[in-house]
Amino acid sequence: MAGMTIKGFKKRSRRPMSLGDRMFEYGNFIFLTLLMVVTLYPFLNTLAVSLNNANDSIRGGIYLLPRIWTIENYKYVLGEATIFHATMISILRTVIGTVLTVFCSAMVAYTVSRQEFVLRKFVTIAFILTMYINGGLIPNFLLIRDLGLIDSFWVYIFPGLIGVFNLIIIRSFIEGLPESILESARIDGAGEYRNFFSIVLPLSTPVLATVALFSGVYQWNQWFDVFLYNSSNVELSTLQYELQKILQNSNASMTSKSASDGFANVGQQGSGVTPFSIRATMTIVASLPIIMVYPFLQKYFVKGMMVGGVKG
């Protein structure tokens, strides 16, 4: 009887869609489908080029599927002797840099979010000013040199330990937490450290995951600081920097061969790879780890951006 009542209620509550509602849904479906195609096509096209014969790719006309399948591009890129070690350095840099950045940014954000902190406005403004005022490349290099971070692994970690953008997002999220929870903990004798580690950090998981994704992508993609500070130390070279060197060497080889043999002969007499195919292969190799990690952080990323951005 109850089942029949609920079923009948569902039937009665179902309102037929009007023409305007149907057009709205169809429009949304078409728009989102086009957006998906526009978003996915560049990646799928790059993947197809990376799996296509390099000499054949020069002709163009590669869209979603390779014309001549091959893995020679990946063998060439991943066959370099320094790639494995550079990948380990990149992974180590990404993991350590992300953990320390999230932790330090959360600590500072919690401090400036407290109303009882007298200098909260001054400290916040001082941090924000650094987003618009920068000393420049040479003063930064001199500072890094004077700090003794040249030819050091920690030059990848310390300069970007606290990002102002990340700080603002975390602070906005923490300010949105119920103050009554922290007050109850203080009444029970909990100090600021206990509140931070036992209450604020667990409740801030969405925004911390968001900042971790930002920091992880930044650390993984960086190569210019390697060029500036550790280019002479092969042991501290990262994957992105090694891929950049491979591309430069390929471009230089292509230029020299083009000058002597002509562009057409390069495609026939080359080593099986071209700068175009190497660039596509590098893009896939560099982006694949981030693509694999993102699905696990997606729900936290969306929630953290929404909650952290509304109040900010």
Automatic annotation (TrEMBL):
* Record field: transmembrane: 23-44, 83-110, 122-141, 153-174, 195-218, 276-297
ABC transmembrane type-1 domain ranges (all copies): 87-297
Give the GO terms filed under biological process for this record: transmembrane transport
Q: What is its main location?
A: membrane
Any single GO CC term annotated in Swiss-Prot or TrEMBL for this entry: plasma membrane
Q: Is Isomerase given among the entry's keywords?
A: no
User: Which Gene3D superfamilies did the record assign?
Assistant: MetI-like (1.10.3720.10)
Where located?
Cell membrane
Keyword RNA-binding listed? The answer is: no
Q: Name one Pfam family in it.
A: BPD_transp_1
The membrane topology noted for this protein in its Swiss-Prot or TrEMBL record is: Multi-pass membrane protein
Sorted keywords for this record are: Cell membrane, Membrane, Transmembrane, Transmembrane helix, Transport
Q: Which family does it belong to?
A: Belongs to the binding-protein-dependent transport system permease family.
The name under which this protein is listed is: Sugar ABC transporter permease
